[in-house]
Structures are given as structure tokens and as C-alpha cells.
Amino acid sequence: MQDRHGAEFHNAEELVEIVGWNVRNALLGEVYATPKPGLVDRRDTGSHSDMSYETFLLSTEAITPYLAEMFEEGLRSGGNTENPENVFLGIRKTGMEAEKAMYAATGNVNTHKGMIFTMGILLAAAGLIAGEKLSRFSDAQQNDSCKSHERVEFRFFDIDRILETGRNMSYRILEKDFLEMAKREPRSHGEKLFHKYGEKGIRGQAMEGFPIIKEIGLPAMRKYLSIAGDTELRSEIAERATLRHRLLEDEGSMRDEHFENAVNISTLIAIMSDLNDTNVLTRSSYEDMEWLKGESAEIVKIGAAFSEEGLSAIEELNVKCIEKNISPGGAADILAVTILLLKLEGISYV
Predict the structure, then answer these.
(1) How far, in Å, CA of 60 to CA of 176, rounded?
(2) What Rg value do the Cα atoms of the chain yield, rounded?
(3) Are 1 and 345 spatial neighbours (Cβ–Cβ below 8 Å)?
(4) Which has the closest alpha carbon to 272: 313, 307, 309?
(5) What confidence score (pLDDT) does residue 4 get?
(6) The pTM is what?
(7) How far is CA 34 from the centre of its chain?
């Protein structure tokens, strides 16, 4: 990952700037990852005829300032983590402005609507936590001025706490939304899926503290990031498939780029193996969604993008997804948020 070694900030303004930079890099990290089954990447447009790699670049530049603003809204709350629902209501308005900017940049193409929802909630949650910590640190400095000149460094973001705060921000409000949704005719694709299958999609994930991120995305990405030095994991993959030794052992900037790409693709496939992706349901069927999860699980078993057979299977799955008009866009959103959370984890105060 680009920010494995972390980043430092000295005040709230620097923190907002660093977070915004990491938001942009996380969004680009998702779209850069190639090949991605059924999704837009640097090689093809997957199952999409209305968008391209360039469309995602335009959308990224358009929505990043609004996502950074959602973090800042949490930060400005003064660390009021006891009553975070007001922040959620506030960022909903910012999210609508982000969607307008996205549509204006892409010619009315929906590239990042789900991403804005998920990333916005967790950025606001991160801002709430940061605001609380900054407030406490400021008070401590005032009460112990003799140490104020010393270098102080501590990690700022606990991912588990961000996920839990996101849940606390959104649960009751989204629960009310679903109760109202059940009483009326469905108005959107998501509401139709809720009525037909009982699927709550990304809103349901938010209400549960994003278990797909906590239990699948983060462990997978951490595992793949450590694969170069993890002889046990490499041996496990080698029992089933042929390791891409050059990818794991080469040095230099190109090796880092290819390694990061493999980490992101492999994490995406792990997410696809578990997520009930409503993007897939909208475009196809429940059977196709279960098929995709099964295919992805088999690819994970053989090492995903870190084995020759795994990479070949990913490329074959891309062809099949295009034929079936399947696009796991929900999994792509979770990948980008997973990248972002690990970047935030490396930020420290100095």
C-alpha cells in the first residue's frame, strides 16, 4: 500500500488535508486494480457500456472534496461521540451534494453513489473520533505546558472504533428508513431488492458495523500485504497452485506497483466470495450472485492474484461476468473503503 509507513500531521488543518489525499488514493487504488471481474479497470470496461476508466478518474476528482468535508464535519463536532446521529443527518446533505458533483462530472453516470454512502459514514465516524482525541490532547497540553515543546506521537485511528461509531451514527435512522420502506411501493433498485429478497444491502451493512469490512476485507488485505514474508501462507498456496515468485521476490518501484495491484485484486476477490452484492442482484439474479460468490471462493483457495492459476481464473471470471452482464460494484466499494481504513490507521499526531 502506498502509505504503509504512515503519515504525520501537526494540526487539524493538516489532518483534513492528509485524509483527503488518502481518500483520493483509495478511490484510485480501486479503479487502478486490474483485472477486476465485470468491473471497469485499466484494461477494459467490464460489464459497463456507459462508463470507462476515465469516467472514474473524473468522478474521483469530483467527489473527493465532499468526502473530505464529511470527515471535517465529524471533526468539527468537537468529538461528541455520545450523540453521533446528528452528524449522520448532516453528512446526508453533503452526500447529496457529492452525488450532484459526480453526475455533473460523468454526464449523469452513477460511478460512486454507493461509495459516497459507505465512505462518507466511516469518514464522519473517523472525524468524530479524531475530534475527541484532539480535544483531549489540547486539554492535556494546556495542563502540562512544560512538556508542550516535546515531540509527541500517537496513532490516531482505531479501525474497530471507526466501524462501531459508524454503526452508532446510522443504526436507528436507517432502521426507521426500512420500517417506512416496508409500508410503501419500492422507489429504487435497492428498495425493490428489499421487498423481493429482504436484502438490506449496504444500509444493512452500516447498521451492523460493516461486518464485510471487519471480517473479510481487512483480514484479507492484511494477509496479502504480509505474503512476501509469510512462508506459511506461501506454502499453503503452493500446495494448490503455482506461486508468482517474481511478483513476491523482485525489488524496485515496478515491483511495488505490481504487488499493490495484486493485494487489491486478491482482497476484492475475497470480498466477492462473501458479500451479497446488491449490484449483482440488480443486474442479474440471486442465482448469479451465489454463482459469483462460489467462483470467487475457489479463486481465493488457489491464492488469487498471487498464483499463476489464480490470476488466470480471475481473467476467465472477467469474461464470464461480461457475458452474464454481472458487475460486483458493491464489492469494489468495500475494497476502496478497506484501502482507506488501512491508510487512516497509519496516521499519527506529532
Answers:
(1) 31
(2) 21
(3) no
(4) 313
(5) 46
(6) 0.92
(7) 16
